[in-house]
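Form 12-C: Joint structure prediction
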Amino acid sequence: MAQSHATAQAHGGGGGHATVATYLRIAVVLAIVTALEISLIYIPGLPSHVLVASLIVMSIVKFALVVGFYMHLRYDAKLLTALFVGPLTIACAIILALMALFGAFLLLPRS
Amino acid sequence: MTSQAASHAEHDPNIGITGLDHRKMGMWAFLGSECMFFGSLIGTYLSYKGKSLSGPTPHEILNIPLTSVSAFVLLMSSVLMVLALAAVQRNDMKWAKIWLFSTATLGAGFVGFQIFEFTHFVHLGLTLQTNLFGSTFFTLTGFHGAHVTGGVIWLLALWALAVRGKLGPEDALKVEICGLYWHFVDIVWIAIFTLVYLIP
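Section 2 - Result
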C-alpha cells in the first residue's frame, strides 16, 4: 500500500513523524484493547475491584495512544502538552472532589 | 525565541513568539477547557451514581453490546481521520476526500446509534426528569453527542471544500485542527464508555 510509506508532515511548529503504518498499528491495538474491555465484563466471578482497576487502566492506555499518536502530542511542542495536560489534571481533580463531596469514598457509614 | 522562529514569525502572521501556530495553540487551549467541562459532567454523573430513588437504573436499561458497536465505530473514525490528514499532507486529494467523507459517515453513524438509544430509553420510561440517573446520563451523553454532531458538520465542510478543489496540502493545518477536535470527542467517549457503561 503506497500510503503506508507516506509520512505525516509537521504543522504549526510541531514535528509529526508518525507514519500511516504506525497509525494502522495503533488502530489494531485500540481494537484489541476495546475487545478486551468488553469481554472482561462478561467474566463471571471476577472481583469488582479487579474489574474496575483493569477497565480504568485499559481506558487510560487507549486515551494515551489516541492523544500521543493520533493527536501527535508525542511529536509536538511541549507547550501544547502543557496546554492539554494541565486542564486534564484539573478535570481529574474535579471528578475526584465531586465524588468525595458526595460520599463515594466513605469508608465508614455516616452517623 | 530562537532566531529561526523569529524569522518565521516575520513572514507568517499565524506564528507567534512561541514559534507555534496560533490556530493550533488555540485549539489545544480550547480542548483543555473542554476537558474541564466534561470532567464536571462525568464527576456529577459518578457522584449521583446509585443515588436514584426510583428506576430505571443503569443496570436495567443500558445496552452494552449496542454501545460497544457504536464505541468501536467512533474509535475507527479516528483512524480514518489520521488517514485523511496524511492524504492531504501528501497532496493525494482523491483519498483525502474518501477518508474525510468516511470519517463523517462513521461519526453520523455514531450519532444515529445515540438517537436510537435515547429514543429507546424514553420508551422505557427514562427521561431527563425521571431520576438522577436520567438527568446526569442524558446531560453527559447528550453534550457529547452534540459535540460529535458539530464535528460531523466540520468534516463535511472540509470534504465539500475538497470536492470543489479548494482544499490542498497548504490547508493541511485546517484538517489537522479539525482532526484534533475529532480525536478529542473520541477520547471523551473512551472515558464515558468505561465509566458509564462498563463499570458496574
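Section 3 - Comments
Chain A is about 60% helix and 0% strand. The radius of gyration of chain A is 19 Å.
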